[in-house]
């Protein structure tokens, strides 16, 4: 069932500020304290100056996530921008899964928006000004960019009470997924000779590949070099933050087995590039949509990187497209029902990606289309490492079992080929 009257669900009208958190809680306190501490007048002064003195003011509402506070800036001529201001870190809550600092993360996001705005038709906000200095006149790193009138897809589907796994009606859902596939394929069409996050040189306006924000390492010239560092980082984070029973489980060793499996199943093994652009955090939680679930904006782009094809070929997150561990057998009715719903959607989205790639001529030049890898064992092995980061033993145990099945399967297939 879809609720049709959703005017209040769109854009800044849906922002609820600190009410997103329990009053008196740590997150609520953080939001209200930060709102009072930021020098918002400095931001309106900067914004007005950038538009030849046209007056502006902030709207009363704001949106807040784990890392940023967003407020709408309205100019007297009707133009709207947003100020996206970085919140103080809460490592006690979020840990340190991303090794690079806030400044580097902001630089990657700014570079990604500038790159996509200049080179694609992907709807991203235009960046008008920014500062990565936490000691600036505003009191925190910020980005001033265009306001896009839309709502995060996951929030709108909840507000409209959509059917399970659906974004709007069947037609709206299909169009939404087709647009996602087009965005994913467009990103993948850009090639680089190294693996790492995307950066922009302020002096030359050139884009380049540098250290990757999760591991803090790189760039790399081979997939296996990247995977080795990614696996080691996952182990280190687990040791620092996972519960003792997770660390003492056999599935604690998933990252070690991951490296070996990628050497067996990975596309091209330790070979070099080219490597395609991907957004590691691509999903419905970072897509702004209108009332019909048409994508009008892509946000939160600090996950953009040049990556091995197994990374590029991952399904978008929070879209009902979660793959099961290879060989996993479910017995619970609810899980079986979920798998029955998901399997045709996985194939449908893969076909959408394949169609988008064909439309762009990808594969004609000899490169491997990402659609060919989306349901591959290699892409699934990477998914296992990504799930490992949740530090849930029942999740890890399922993937450990799947990893061992893949390992046994590879050994048996080799034995059968031996004369």
Helix content bin: 40-55%
Strand order of the largest sheet: 1-2-3-5-4
Query: Mean of the pLDDT scores?
Result: 90
Given helix and strand content, the structural type is alpha+beta
End-to-end separation: 59 Å
Proportion in β-strands:
15-25%
What CATH first level of the largest domain would be assigned? Alpha Beta
The gyration radius over C-alpha positions equals: 22 Å
Largest sheet: 5 strands, antiparallel
Tally of separate domains:
2
DSSP summary, beta strand count: 13
What pattern of helices and strands is seen along the backbone?
A: HHEEEHHEEEHHEEEHHHEEEEHHHH
Pfam families: APH
Domain Aminoglycoside phosphotransferase: 109-308
InterPro entries: AGP_Transferase, Aminoglycoside_PTrfase, Kinase-like_dom_sf
Protein name: Aminoglycoside phosphotransferase domain-containing protein
Any overview of this molecule?
There is one protein chain. It contains 13 helices and 13 strands. With 419 residues, the chain is of the alpha+beta class. The protein folds into 2 domains: 12-147, Phosphorylase Kinase, domain 1 (2-Layer Sandwich), CATH 3.30.200.20; 153-412, Aminoglycoside 3'-phosphotransferase, Chain: A, domain 2, CATH 3.90.1200. The strands form 3 sheets. It has a 5-stranded antiparallel beta sheet with strand order 1-2-3-5-4, sandwiched between helices. A 5-stranded antiparallel beta sheet has the order 7-10-13-8-9. Strands 6-11-12 form a 3-stranded antiparallel beta sheet. The N and C termini lie far apart (59 Å).
